[in-house]
Write a structure and sequence with these properties.
This protein has 628 residues and is an alpha/beta fold. It has 18 helices and 32 strands. The chain folds into 3 domains: 299 residues, 3-Layer(aba) Sandwich (Rossmann fold); 145 residues, 3-Layer(aba) Sandwich (Rossmann fold); 126 residues, ANL, C-terminal domain (GMP Synthetase, Chain A, domain 3, 2-Layer Sandwich), CATH 3.30.300. The strands form 9 sheets. An 8-stranded mixed β-sheet has the order 12-11-8-6-7-14-15-25, with helices on both faces. A 7-stranded mixed β-sheet has the order 5-4-17-16-18-19-20, sandwiched between helices. The model has no long low-confidence stretch (mean pLDDT 93).
């Protein structure tokens, strides 16, 4: 496969290129128009095409004679449950749930929030929505009520689909009290709350009025057929951290996304229909949408729903057990997971227990993977560990390697090369393209390829300001990068105030709002500092109000608890350090990058705009004192 030629065609002859790729999926009406613009002059793909995502994922394979192939494997070490579903069995569950949603009055264009754990019913709910044109928003199960409220009030769902509980290792997290609190706080009142009762042994949950039982709804409903939706019809909304603190509702289309996912499974991941593909991600993240649900099912791969963790469920060999037991061919996870396994099993003893003969490739994304972790993986697992890079906004890889024919070259610490369709440049602040080995902003010439975001739900101004206003005619990724002489790209990290904790993007400005709400805090700065396990973790520096005599230990304890309650434990804020003052520019802007550099103990240049250089020494002494 000539990947250079493929890439050139995707940029120079993009409409023909993507028309060919669109033929790889089955349309109800094949598009005559390949590329156009919406009313805001933003590019959109295949606008006059019609299709249905659930049909592509399920019904098509049954029509093609693969109804008895296993579509879904559910493996839950936290409950000891295992279950498989063929494509035919999955269709029965999905079509009846879709019929149930329709019986409650949901129809094409309505929205539904799905707040559920890693169980098959979450996937069924996503596909049931897609089947009847309902736009879903999956929220990470266990997210705090405040996070649920933001999403409910923004997308105004006609239904909220949830479960009685989720399980984090050995801890049961009841969802209904969280849902009840969110419903109470939300301005928009949700008409239908559908609850899947997991019937766990310690199933003590407070039911409240107005709930619909998921299983009863499925049992009494007639199956619904797939409806045709236009290519540009939103399949889902997925909220991602924004620099203003309020999450952005990234909106995904149907036809462009389906085309891009089919292309990804074939060319990037190089996985054949019928093989088992496993993305170890929560459904609530972009990876869970694209590569636990839609991508593998479009490609007729068996997908795995894993309700567990890389370690402690029961040990650091659980990934290798899954790969061995279900003959996983290609896997995708975050470097954090591999680092956690490496920490627990440094000599790879647990790997030896399992037959990994079917395992061909390990893909990594979500954060930069350190070389030591890649070395460990290569030594003990013995299959290629392939880093790649993308965003919630893109929905599929932007930088990576085309691995389908095995003729690819990994460069350590690089995420790969631009993927076909992504015309990537490295610019400086003035919009000038940089030479090789110079760090700048990673930007992409418009149009973005199929599969990328349609926009931000109900907020075109914010969409334009966040992504399109920095460089005219280009998409601004918010990441820094370096390109080498061979075209390989090295991602250097976020350039805004979003940090990446174990593959989860979290807004430091949202955390700052919470930290600064503490009665003793005058001002604060939250930055992401380097962490061996999670890539980055947040660290708060706070200035106390005059007259406050609260101890550092107590304020740290209180702030950590508040952030957990308002965002969730995923935020991982554990460090709060009090300082006399924060370093600022002469115009009063907090120098967050300087704080981060000092906390990481890295070399730094004194910013020319700093209002008082003496503060650097003050903070260095404070860090030494705090860490001792």
């Amino acid at each position: 496969m000539d990947t250079e030629h493929l890439f050139k065609r995707s940029i120079q002859d993009r409409e023909h290129f993507w028309k060919e790729q669109a033929r790889e999926i089955r349309w109800f009406r094949f598009p005559e128009q390949i590329l156009s613009e919406n009313k805001n002059s933003y590019p959109q793909w295949f606008p006059d095409g019609e299709l249905n995502m659930c049909y592509l994922c399920i019904d098509k394979h049954i029509e093609d004679g693969f109804g008895e192939q296993t579509a879904i494997v559910y493996d839950s070490p936290v409950t000891g449950q295992k279950k498989t579903y063929t494509f035919s069995q999955a269709r029965e569950e999905i079509s009846k749930l879709a019929g149930g949603l329709a019986s409650l009055g949901l129809q094409k264009g309505d929205t539904a929030v799905i707040y559920m754990p890693m169980i098959p019913q979450t996937l069924f709910a996503m596909l049931a929505c897609a089947r009847i044109g309902v736009i879903h928003n999956v929220v990470f199960g266990g997210f705090a009520p405040h996070e649920l409220v933001v999403r409910i009030d923004d997308c105004r769902p006609k239904a909220l689909i949830t479960a009685t509980a989720g399980i984090e290792i050995a801890r049961r997290i009841p969802y209904l009290p969280l849902v009840e609190k969110a419903i109470e706080l939300a301005q928009d009142k949700v008409e239908n709350i559908i609850v899947y009762n997991r019937k766990l042994a310690d199933n003590q949950h407070e039911m409240f009025d107005g709930l619909t039982d998921y299983e009863e709804l499925v049992k009494k409903s007639e199956p619904a057929d797939c409806i045709a939706v236009e290519s540009t019809h939103p399949l889902y909304l997925l909220y991602t951290s924004g620099t203003t603190g309020k999450p952005k509702g990234i909106t995904r289309d149907t036809g462009g996304y389906a085309t891009a996912l089919k292309f990804s499974m074939n060319y990037i991941y190089g996985v054949n229909p019928g093989e088992t593909y496993w993305a170890a991600s929560d459904f609530g993240w972009a990876v869970g949408h694209s590569f636990s649900v839609y991508g593998p099912l479009i490609n007729r791969n068996t997908t795995i729903i894993f309700e567990g963790k890389p370690v402690m469920t029961p040990d650091a060999g659980t990934f290798w057990r899954i790969i061995s037991e279900y003959k996983v061919s290609v896997m995708f996870t975050a470097p954090t997971a591999i680092r956690a396994i490496k920490k627990e099993d440094p000599d790879g003893e647990l790997v030896k227990k399992y037959d990994l003969r079917h395992f061909k490739k390990q893909f990594l994304a979500g954060e930069r993977c350190d070389v030591a972790t890649l070395d460990w993986f290569e030594k003990y697992i013995g299959v290629p560990a392939i880093d790649h890079w993308w965003q919630t906004e893109s929905g599929w890889p932007m930088v990576g390697l085309m691995t389908s024919d095995g003729n690819y070259k990994i460069k350590r610490a690089s995420a790969g090369k631009p993927i076909p369709g992504y015309d990537i440049k490295i610019f400086d602040e003035n919009g000038l393209e940089l030479d090789a080995h110079q760090e700048g902003y990673l930007i992409i010439r418009l149009p973005l390829p199929p599969g990328a975001l349609l926009g931000i739900w109900n907020d075109n101004d914010r969409f334009h300001n966040s992504y399109l206003s920095q460089y005219k005619g280009y998409y601004f990724s918010g990441d820094g990068a370096i390109k080498d002489e061979d075209g390989y790209i090295f991602i250097t990290g976020r350039v805004d105030d979003v940090i990446n904790v174990a593959g989860h993007r979290l807004s430091t400005s949202e955390m700052e709002e919470i930290v600064s709400s503490h009665p003793d805090v005058a001002e604060c700065a939250v930055v992401g500092i380097d962490d061996d396990l999670k890539g980055q973790v947040p660290f708060a520096t706070v200035v106390l109000k005059n007259g406050s005599d609260i101890s550092n230990d107590l304020i740290e304890q209180q702030i950590v608890q508040t952030v957990r309650e308002k965002i969730s434990a995923v935020a991982c804020l554990k460090n709060v350090m009090t300082v006399k003052r924060l370093p600022k520019t002469r115009s009063g802007k907090i120098l967050r990058k300087l704080i981060r550099t000092l906390l990481d103990g890295k070399e730094f240049r004194i910013p020319s705009t700093i209002d008082d250089e003496k503060i650097i020494e003050e903070i260095q002494l404070k860090i030494k004192e705090y860490r001792s």
